[in-house]
Amino acid sequence: MNMTQKRALLEPKSIKEMYPVSASGKQAKELNDKQIQDVMYGRSDKLILVIGPCSADHEDPVIDYISRLRPVQDKVADKIVIIPRIYTNKPRTTGAGYKGMLHQPDPDARPDILKGLIAIRKLHMRALNETGFSCADEMLYPENHNYLSDLLSYVAVGARSVEDQQHRLTASGLDIPAGMKNPTSGDLSVMMNSIRAAQGGHTFIYRNWEVESKGNPMAHAILRGFVDSYGKSHPNYHYEDLLRLYEMFQDAPDIKNPSVIVDCNHSNSGKQFNEQIRIAKEVLHSMRHNDHLRPMIKGLMIESYIEDGACVQGEFTYGKSITDPCLGWEKTERLIYELADLL
Questions:
Q1: Dihedral sign of CA atoms 118, 302, 242, 159 in order
Q2: Cα separation of 72 and 67, whole Å?
Q3: 226 touches 234 (CB < 8 A)
Q4: Rounded to two decimals, what is the model's pTM?
Q5: Is 5 a domain residue?
Q6: Overall number of domains in the chain
């Protein structure tokens, strides 16, 4: 093999023992999980809002951003359940250079994965302890989930991972919602099969163990748009797209709790971050227009940070995304209140 073993990394159990969750943090996560699960199982008609930076780049601005969400959540608690995004594994789209906080806890320093594992756990713990939010992360590397499993309330499986068997099987063993994105090709049958796999029980290899999963009934769809063979983005959040997904769920009685969260950025917006405002409102309009769609649409995903847009590669501005462009705070706060008024 054309690789060199550098060092053995600490097991998840060891890092969890070094950085344990506080009693108040455990209690907050239990309350958050209950609210989110009530939405996913149809016991609550609140809207889930998975919102935050494209990539968690630096600890202080991420915590600053999430702290701003706290009073907003308290004001819209009767309508919206906010799950902040802390995407600690998120690389640039090409995979070259910066690969997220897990690899580079300091984007200006050399990669250090051991420091990264500690940094991402401390970041999620700080969010939980200081704001009461247990957050969302992308399951880019399934074997790493256990480093954060006692801190997360939501997991997303990305468009480039959703066809991978290990991602599907790992999602089947989680006790939190797992969003399965449509692949970049836009083939919804792939997404549907990934939901089936995640909802089923399996025996498989995980971190050198033979394990058995019971299935995750909260595995659900995420519509994020797609890219055609010419590299052009196409949305799939419109009324007709949502109705088509509803019909697919009707033809799939084996899928439990048929649910979707609409990603307002990525190929749905063509990465035009300001378009997320219009898209979010259009999805809510579709929900009001059709009684079949309201129980199926569980929420929205929005990429948002303190400052509008994204940094030029190689530069850093506090609270400005170093990966995909994000909606700034003032627009975000206004949008959340507008969404609550529309519900």
A1: negative
A2: 9
A3: yes
A4: 0.96
A5: no
A6: 1
Residue with token string 């006692």? 150
Phi/psi region, residue 208 (left: phi>0; alpha: psi -120 to 50; beta: rest), is left
Q: How far apart are CA 343 and CA 341, in angstroms?
A: 6
Q: Is residue 310 part of a domain?
A: yes
Scanning the structure block, which residue is given the tokens 């996560």?
29
15: nearest Cα among 111, 150, 130: 150
Provide the CATH number for the domain around residue 274. 3.20.20.70
Q: What angle do CA 88, 118, 146 make, to 5 degrees?
A: 70
In a domain, residue 1? The reply is no
Any residues with CB less than 8 A from the CB of 47 and at least 6 apart, and which? 39, 79, 80, 81, 284, 298, 299, 300, 339, 343
In a domain, 169, yes or no: yes
Residue 239 sits in which domain range?
A: 12-342
pLDDT digits (tens, 9 = 90+) for 152-187: 999 999 999 999 999 999 999 999 999 999 999 999
pLDDT-derived band at 335 (thresholds 50, 70, 90) equals very high
